[in-house]
């Protein structure tokens, strides 16, 4: 079989580890593209290293010296002759400078342009850009708020409660709520100080605080030439400390008309920007209204739920677009069908969420119709303590949400991971909750539930 197509990459270097490295490797294999794994000294026995065609050690265990080490990754590209890099998620996936450096060396970055990464990385510029492109944004300041007096003026005009956010923010750091005027000074000063400490940049802006929204995000793809499609939404409201634990598609909160409307708005904006590759437009959804908060310019952890309801391979699509191919689907070719749920299996105590690295003695993964497991662990694998605790994703698909929930319960009961603690028991408990069964949850639901059901 000859997999060669005009312009298609011959060898892709995967600048990541764990389940996402494996996910990218699988897409490359199916496209007839050779793969290069890179790894730290802590990951010599990792599955992505074992399965790749070639591998290169890029440094010691700390990510700053290996998976974030741009010169070492560049050297690995040169040594192996890779013609493209897939960054996965996290690490260098939203580093505009990395994308630029690769381009300067004639290596393709499988992702959007450095300019689009940069625009969306600055939350004020992202907000302004979204508004200009016709996306509904949260009411708030026009740009940065440089003084407390200015903050007071805007908050008075808009009404309380308000939220002070860091321009360089993300992950909830440098974010402070002010319920009324009396709380504004402290919120403003604290947000600036936290932003300075976390990002070395104390610039902040103000938004109206939405009390009990859902987090709903739209998956888009652009060809970089003014065409874009959307692949429906994901509901990622179930989270703890800004870490998603459960994602589903479609959102239990939306009807078909709302889905088409928000999807079209997101895709049209991506088209107008000339956006290339996969992107996610994040919204807070409350009282029937969508409010843009951020855009992620990378593949996301939860992309499999979208793959399950569309039947499309998002990583293959990313690779094709980065090689200069047009979008392989028009909007009318994309059919959203059935329901998918992903739960994140972390090596953590299911009640305290304390990390639980160490040796995995036994792994038995669930299977059968509608069950997918994206994971890079195996019996005898030692989970290193240096990286995040995600060790697998269980994704279940059903014709509707009810079938999906029954299948999730069945699959969780089959799943065996011995030797380390995992979040599997958390999901068994969640499935017993009427609010979860009914899809009635917002971004605060999980933390409130955990608060009411403290450790043992
Ligand atoms: C908000 C908000 C309420 N109102 N913005 C949290 C991190 C960043 N991605 C945006 N975040 C929020 N922005 C306004 N105007 C509440 C949050 C928020 C949140 C958002 C999505 C998912 C989980 C969250 C948990 C707490 C707060």
Can you walk through the features of this model?
Strand 4 (84-86), helix 4 and strand 5 form a beta-alpha-beta unit. The chain folds into 3 domains: 11-110, Rossmann fold, CATH 3.40.50.20; 139-208, 2-Layer Sandwich (Dna Ligase, domain 1); 214-452, ATP-grasp fold, B domain (D-amino Acid Aminotransferase, Chain A, domain 1), CATH 3.30.470. It contains 15 helices and 20 strands. By secondary structure, the chain is α+β, with helices and mostly antiparallel strands. It is 34% helix and 25% strand. The strands form 5 sheets. Strands 13-12-9-10-11-14-19-17 form an 8-stranded antiparallel β-sheet, sandwiched between helices. Strands 3-2-1-4-5 form a 5-stranded parallel β-sheet. Strands 7-6-8 form a 3-stranded antiparallel β-sheet, with helices on one face. Ligand MV4 binds next to strand 8 and strand 13.
Task: Give short descriptive properties of this protein.
D-amino Acid Aminotransferase, Chain A, domain 1; 5-stranded parallel beta sheet; alpha+beta; globular; Rossmann fold; 456 residues; 8-stranded antiparallel beta sheet; Dna Ligase, domain 1
């Amino acid at each position: 079989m000859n997999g060669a197509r005009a312009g298609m990459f011959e060898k892709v270097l995967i600048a990541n580890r764990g389940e996402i490295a494996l996910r990218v490797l699988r897409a490359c294999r199916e496209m007839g593209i050779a793969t290069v794994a890179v790894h730290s000294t802590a990951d010599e026995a990792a599955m992505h290293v074992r399965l790749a065609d070639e591998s290169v050690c890029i440094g010691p265990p700390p990510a700053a010296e290996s998976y974030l080490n741009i010169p070492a990754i560049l050297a690995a590209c040169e040594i192996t002759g890779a013609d493209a890099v897939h960054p996965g998620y996290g690490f260098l996936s939203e580093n505009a400078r990395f994308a630029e450096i690769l381009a300067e060396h004639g290596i393709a970055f499988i992702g959007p342009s450095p300019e689009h990464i940069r625009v969306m990385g600055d939350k004020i510029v992202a907000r302004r850009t979204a508004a200009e492109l016709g996306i509904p944004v949260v009411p708030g300041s026009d740009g940065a708020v440089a003084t407390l007096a200015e903050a007071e003026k805007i908050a008075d005009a808009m009404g309380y409660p308000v939220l002070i956010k860091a321009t360089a923010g993300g992950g909830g750091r440098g974010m402070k709520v002010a319920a009324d005027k009396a709380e504004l000074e402290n919120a403003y000063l604290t947000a600036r100080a936290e932003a300075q400490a976390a990002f070395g940049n104390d610039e902040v802006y103000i938004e109206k605080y939405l009390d009990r929204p859902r987090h709903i995000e739209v998956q888009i793809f652009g060809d970089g030439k003014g065409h874009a499609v959307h692949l429906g939404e994901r509901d990622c409201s179930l989270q703890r400390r800004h870490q998603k634990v459960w994602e589903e598609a479609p959102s239990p909160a939306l009807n078909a008309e709302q889905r088409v409307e928000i999807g079209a708005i997101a895709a049209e904006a991506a088209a107008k920007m000339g956006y290339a590759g996969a992107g996610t437009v994040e919204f807070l959804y409350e009282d029937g209204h969508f409010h843009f908060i951020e855009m992620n310019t990378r593949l996301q952890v939860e992309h499999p739920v979208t793959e399950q309801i569309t039947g499309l391979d998002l990583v293959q699509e990313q690779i094709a677009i980065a090689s200069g191919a047009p979008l392989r689907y028009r909007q009318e070719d994309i059919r959203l069908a059935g329901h998918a749920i992903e739960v994140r299996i972390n090596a953590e105590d299911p009640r305290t969420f304390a990390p639980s690295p160490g040796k995995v003695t036994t792994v038995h993964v669930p299977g059968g119709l509608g069950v997918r497991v994206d994971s890079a662990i195996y019996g005898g694998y030692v989970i290193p303590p240096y990286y995040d605790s995600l060790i697998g994703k269980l994704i279940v698909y059903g014709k509707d949400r009810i079938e999906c929930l029954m299948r999730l319960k069945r699959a969780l009961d089959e799943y065996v991971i011995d030797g380390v603690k995992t979040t599997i028991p958390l999901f068994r408990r969640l499935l017993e909750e009427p609010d979860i069964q009914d899809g009635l949850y917002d971004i605060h639901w999980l933390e409130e539930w955990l608060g009411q059901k403290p450790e043992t």
